[in-house]
Design brief:
Length: about 375
């Protein structure tokens, strides 16, 4: 379901501080200015939203089995670390009518939102959101962004460079700049929606920021400085913005689910094969930036997680791994897309465990071993 907002800003894609929803009705836009809808009209619009949303299949297209993954892993002798969570998707890629998807999670944990810390995995969301916003303004990923901070030196980089820093190096300042560019209100109110499979996701915490909430002491990401966007042929000044929306996440954090993470990387990697309503609003240039960054080599934590996957696949050289790992507050987390080119299959994995950096290694290797050996048995078949 798509949400449309009224804005007093001069550019239709940039929200003013008081942007608010006009109406959320799939692909239909109704600008209702009356304070009170007549009951008959309200009922009609609600029915239309439900019907159209069901027909277009917006939101996460995931039917998840909550028993098989735990059963199969325990049969291998797996002893889960404390607070282990996992979701595994097996996709036979192809056109919509021929594509087969099967999803399995560990004991229903793929919808857990408030009891774990996703750390740097959510930088994938920020990268997608910033690239999508940039494209809607008519700029390419190589556009230069000049952040004019009032309390520190200006910073100028291409959007492509900021995305790669955030995903490959897991640079916290790059993550903050992606959120600043997209805008606090826009990313929370218009990007984290069911149409994108991101309902329930919230960004409230900046990483390694000196801008702190005076009450909680946590870094905040509500304020965006003036940003000059430049390409070879034109430029645009985005004025300073302050997000005022109220959102819920424990300890003023960044909340999401394993299901949303897996669905996001699925949409990035299978973009060309998905129906339009399941695609992020990005094009080939944005996809190249995202996929290139997700496949690039990582430092030790991410590298060891990938090695666990490769061991599980027995060194299969046709396996390519795209991923974004995270670690903070003793939570190890990962979101992965694994392409086995020899079979054409895609595997999507999102997982988290506590405590320690290496708490996911054994689980990921065992999951990969099951996937490589068809260890899910008939549960994988689409027949």
């Amino acid at each position: 379901m798509s949400c449309y907002f009224r804005s007093n800003s001069r550019h239709p894609y940039w929200d003013s501080d008081d942007s608010r929803p006009v109406l959320c009705v799939s692909s239909l836009v109704y600008r209702v200015r009356s304070a009170v809808l007549r009951p008959s009209l309200a009922i009609f619009l609600a029915l239309m939203a439900t019907t159209i949303g069901a027909q277009t299949g917006q939101g996460q297209p995931l039917v998840v089995n909550e028993d098989v993954l735990e059963q199969r892993l325990r049969e291998t002798g797996f002893e889960p670390p404390e607070k282990f969570k996992a979701l595994v998707g097996i996709v036979e890629a192809g056109a919509e009518e021929s594509r087969c998807e099967r999803w399995f999670d560990w004991a229903g944990t793929s919808t857990d939102r408030d009891d774990w810390w996703p750390a740097s995995t959510v930088k994938l969301y920020a990268a997608i959101a910033a690239l999508q916003r940039n494209r809607r303004m008519g700029f390419r990923p190589r556009a230069r962004l000049l952040f004019n901070y009032s309390d520190e030196e200006p910073v100028e980089r291409t959007l492509r460079e900021i995305v790669r820093r955030a995903i490959i190096r897991s640079d916290n300042h790059a993550f903050n700049r992606l959120v600043e560019y997209a805008g606090f209100n826009w990313i929370n109110q218009r990007f984290f929606v069911s149409r994108n499979g991101l309902q329930g996701t919230v960004f409230l915490r900046a990483y390694n920021s000196h801008r702190l909430d005076p009450e909680t002491g946590y870094g905040v990401n509500r304020a965006s400085p003036p940003i000059m966007v430049r390409s070879q042929s034109r430029e645009r000044l985005i004025p300073a913005r302050v997000g005022r929306g109220e959102f819920s996440c424990p300890e003023q954090g960044n909340c999401t689910t394993l299901r949303s993470l897996a669905d996001a990387i699925r949409r990035v990697m299978l973009h060309e094969e998905l129906p339009a309503e399941q695609r992020f609003r990005v094009g080939p240039r944005e996809l190249r930036v995202l996929r290139g960054a997700l496949e690039a080599p990582r430092r030790e934590h991410g590298r060891l997680l990938v090695e666990s996957i490769r061991r599980g696949f027995g060194g299969d050289e046709s396996v390519r791994v795209y991923h974004k790992p995270g670690f903070a507050y003793q939570w190890s987390s990962e979101v992965m897309a694994v392409h086995q080119e020899s079979t054409g299959r895609w595997f999507f994995i999102s997982a988290a465990a506590w405590p320690g950096r290496r708490s996911l290694d054994d689980g990921l290797e065992r999951i990969a071993r099951l996937l490589a050996g068809d260890g899910f048995g008939g549960e994988v078949s689409c027949d």
